[in-house]
């Protein structure tokens, strides 16, 4: 199950179906369809706070991922983790990246999902691989939702 929570203030509307599809597509690429995760859309201030507390970085960011990796005793399903996206940053980056806001949120959700699956971009080789995968998944998302417009 992909649980999407909206803590933006004021509450911003976004395409939940596109974001769920983006996450599900990334998970399916690695045969991980039977996992649960939570995605939270919030603001820059919250990402700044989380980045300070959990990463020791005094700066906001667009997306953070927190692996949980446990079997939920209530559901019997594997809980992969949490993705937190700054909606403020997604709005800013959408224009720069020539994306609609929903597309930028989907792109960031893919990025966060890949982190939950163990991908990193801390060296040129791993960054190239992660970017290749996220671009391929994003192309599927854009194609799927272009047909639905």
What does this protein structure show overall?
The protein is α/β, with parallel strands linked by helices and 149 residues long. Helices cover 50% and strands 21% of the residues. It has 5 helices and 4 strands. It has a 4-stranded mixed β-sheet with strand order 1-2-4-3, with helices on both faces. Strand 3 (63-71) and strand 4 form a beta hairpin. Helix 1 crosses helix 5 (124-146). The mean pLDDT is 92.
What percent of residues are in strands? 15-25%
Radius of gyration: 15 Å
Spatial order of the strands forming the largest sheet: 1-2-4-3
N-to-C series of helices and strands: EHEHEEHHH
Indicate the structural class: alpha/beta
Please give the largest β-sheet: 4 strands, mixed
Low-confidence stretches: none
What key attributes describe this structure?
5 helices; 4-stranded mixed beta sheet; about 150 residues; 4 strands; alpha/beta
Quick gist of this model?
This protein is of the alpha/beta class and 149 residues long. 50% of the residues lie in helices and 21% in strands. The relative contact order is 0.18.
Describe the secondary-structure layout:
Blueprint: E1 2-6, H1 16-29, E2 35-42, H2 44-55, E3 63-71, E4 78-86, H3 87-96, H4 101-116, H5 124-146
Parallel strand pairs: 1-2, 2-4
Antiparallel strand pairs: 3-4
């Amino acid at each position: 199950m992909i649980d999407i929570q909206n803590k933006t203030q004021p509450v911003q509307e976004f395409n939940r179906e596109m974001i769920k599809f983006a996450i599900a597509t990334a998970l399916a690429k690695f045969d991980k369809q039977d996992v649960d995760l939570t995605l939270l859309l919030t603001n820059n201030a919250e990402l700044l706070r989380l980045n300070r507390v959990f990463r020791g970085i005094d700066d906001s960011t667009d997306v953070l991922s927190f692996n949980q990796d446990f079997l939920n005793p209530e559901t019997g399903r594997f809980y992969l983790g949490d993705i937190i996206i700054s909606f403020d940053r997604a709005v800013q980056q959408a224009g720069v990246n020539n994306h609609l806001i929903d597309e930028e949120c989907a792109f960031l959700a893919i990025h966060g999902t890949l982190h939950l699956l163990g991908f990193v971009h801390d060296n040129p080789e791993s960054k190239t691989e992660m970017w290749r995968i996220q671009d391929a998944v994003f192309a599927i998302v854009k194609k799927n939702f272009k047909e639905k417009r």
